[in-house]
Design goal:
The complex is a heterodimer of chains A (about 300) and B (about 230). Chain A contains 11 helices and 4 strands. Chain A is an alpha+beta fold and about 300 residues long. Chain A folds into 2 domains: about 170 residues, no CATH class; about 90 residues, Alpha-Beta Plaits (2-Layer Sandwich). In chain A, helix 2 crosses helix 9, helix 7 packs parallel to helix 11 and helix 9 runs antiparallel to helix 11. Chain A is elongated and about 90 Å long. The two termini of chain A are about 20 Å apart. With about 230 residues, chain B is an alpha/beta fold. In chain B, about 30% of the residues lie in helices and about 25% in strands. Chain B has 7 helices and 10 strands. In chain B, the strands form 2 sheets. Chain B has a 6-stranded mixed β-sheet with strand order 6-7-8-3-9-10, with helices on both faces. The two termini of chain B are about 30 Å apart. Classes of the chains: A alpha+beta (about 300), B alpha/beta (about 230). Chains A and B meet through helix 8 of A and helix 2 and helix 3 of B.
């Protein structure tokens, strides 16, 4: 059955206006919760880019000179194989390392342009049986021919990872709670709207309106609330990202620059935020209207 | 047009609103359903509108068996049935025109169709000069005539009226009855539940009397109470 667009638009806008205070409450709750959810997603992205070198429990990085010969590299490798303290290791050649570098420096195009693949040091990523052995094992390679640098600055990174994972957990949890409360609020807004119009709904059913005909304006109402709320949230996420970038650039906090996420990640997060808003709004209303439609 | 076959309906344990109720109404008939409050009149009408389902037995309306009808078909079924009530059931925030047009809007008719049909219908019920009024600016009789216009605008096969004159003074009651009679003459089957002795006695139509959920009497040209009025 055709539902005229004019009818739906008229009904929806009328409903929104009549319940504007409740609508505003729903919109605000959605935007706050989605902004938090989006920000926590970005933080998650940032942490995973910043710590990609240390993935898989890598505790020791041995950077080779970009100019190191094959012989020098294989000497290091042979030594790694023979040491009993070492659980596993893998080798990152220049091509792979350059890929990683590009990922890490996605937000510093100047730096990216000035560095070529041949300048990037290849490295061994080493996992130790006992992490506390990192300094002693590291020092073995420090003076080795062809080795540029040994990095076992694990303690600081460990703490950082720990703190950020807790922060992430808290933020995601908070965002989830807020999303649920936003859904409940939308549910309530729609329920109030339908309750105040139950006579109208009864008459509609009496003259033969289909359930979809009654439902669509309400669902659209929820969708508009979700959409507006999520757009506000998306704006807030962009704002947070911009502020972060500004702080890093302005105060030159290089340690944080590893946390910067690419604009692609930001865009995906925004899309997620908007999609969530629409889904929560629409599904919430569909659920709220359901019980009033039973014959 | 309407066939009720051995229908039982109860709301509470051991308390039947309708028990072993069977009746048949042909196309174009005008039938009064009488009986005391709680005799099952409203339940019968609710069954015919498929607002309720029988516990057992069959309800046939306009060629459809209602107890087996799936929920999604009900709206389409109801478009063949007009219904009016004691309390009019108009929408207070819509004008007379919009109230009547609502019945067309809801089933997806075009705006042009609405703007041509509604004034004709309001002309028929004598309210063409009150199109832009709101229900609370009208008398009870006028409101019921708006409700009749809304019920009849889809040219339904059947018109169900649940005590349509219950809130009206005699004069308005008669004007409503006049309209129902005209609607009946177009071939629409009219089933009216009522308490109004005067109307039933003077119209001399078929009368079905319910008592405790059972059909006590079914007379072709009946009166309200056969001398003894029911309690």
């Amino acid at each position: 059955m055709a539902i005229s667009l004019e009818y739906v638009v008229k009904e929806t806008s009328g409903n929104l206006w009549r319940n504007r205070l409740m609508s505003l409450a729903a919109v605000l709750t959605i935007s706050v919760s989605l902004a938090l959810a989006g920000a926590s997603l970005l933080l998650k992205q940032g942490v995973s880019t910043a710590t990609s070198q240390w993935k898989g429990g890598v505790q020791l990085l041995i950077f080779m000179q970009p100019t190191a010969t094959n012989a020098q590299t294989s000497t290091v490798e042979r030594q790694l194989k023979s040491l009993p303290e070492i659980k596993s290791y893998y080798y990152m050649d220049q091509a792979k390392s350059y890929q990683e570098f590009k990922q890490l420096m996605a937000n510093s195009p100047d730096l990216l342009q000035s560095v070529t693949e041949s300048q990037i040091p290849p490295s061994f990523r080493v996992v130790l049986k006992n992490p506390s052995a990192a300094p002693s094992v590291g020092s073995l390679f420090q003076q080795q021919a062809g080795v540029k640098d040994v990095n076992f600055n694990r303690g600081a990174i460990n703490t950082m990872l720990h703190v950020t994972s807790i922060a992430q957990f808290v933020i995601v949890g908070l965002a989830a709670i807020l999303l649920i409360s936003a859904s409940v609020l939308i549910l309530n807004v729609i329920r109030v709207a339908i309750f105040s119009r139950r006579r109208e709904v009864a008459v509609m059913k009496l003259v033969g309106a289909t359930n979809w005909f009654i439902r669509v304006p309400f669902m659209l109402e929820g969708m508009v609330q979700g959409l507006v709320g999520s757009i506000v949230a998306a704006g807030a996420v962009v704002g947070i990202q911009a502020l972060f970038q500004y702080v890093i650039q302005h105060f030159n906090v290089t340690i944080l620059s590893n946390f910067l996420v690419s604009s692609h990640d930001v865009l995906m997060t925004e899309l997620f935020v908007v999609a969530m808003g629409i889904i929560v709004g629409t599904a919430g209303s569909a659920f709220a209207v359901r019980r009033y439609l039973e014959v | 047009m309407i066939k009720v076959d051995r229908v039982y309906k109860r709301y509470k344990e051991n308390q039947y609103a309708l028990s072993d109720c069977s009746l048949e109404i042909d196309r174009g008939e005008f039938v009064f359903v009488v009986g005391a409050s709680g005799s099952g009149k409203s339940t019968l009408l609710r069954l015919l509108l498929r607002e309720e389902r029988p516990d057992s037995g069959e309800v046939w309306v306009a060629g459809k068996e209602l107890s087996a009808m799936p929920g999604w078909k009900v709206p389409f079924f109801r478009r063949n049935i007009g219904s009016i009530f004691q309390d009019f059931r108009l929408l207070p925030n819509k004008t007379v025109f919009d109230n009547v047009g609502f019945a067309l809007e809801v089933i997806g008719k075009s705006k042009r169709h609405i703007t041509t049909q509604v004034p004709q219908m309001l002309e028929l019920v004598g309210l063409h000069d009150k199109q832009e009024r709101f229900p609370d600016e009208l008398s009870g009789g006028e409101q019921q005539r708006v409700a009749i216009a809304r019920a009849f605008i889809n040219k339904p096969l059947i018109l169900l009226a649940d005590e349509p004159t219950g809130n009206l003074d005699p004069e308005n009651s008669w004007s409503v009855m006049g309209l129902l009679e005209r609607i009946n003459r177009t071939g629409t089957t009219v089933l009216m539940a009522t308490h109004d002795v005067g109307i039933v006695d003077s119209m001399r139509r078929r009368v079905i009397e319910l008592e405790n959920g059972q059909i006590k009497r079914d007379q072709t040209r009946g009166v309200y109470g056969l001398g003894q009025t029911s309690t």
